[in-house]
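Backbone geometry:
***
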Amino acid sequence: MYLQGEYQHVSSGLDGSGLGATTNGVGVSSTPNQVWVTVGMRHRF
């Protein structure tokens, strides 16, 4: 099993610059914060 996560905060996202937190494969957040978590299980035969 594995647990993977990421948290991002963009400090200049509230000044009207249009910047938002972004993570590869997840997209751009409409707020200055973004959190994502992945949980999975790997099995080999």
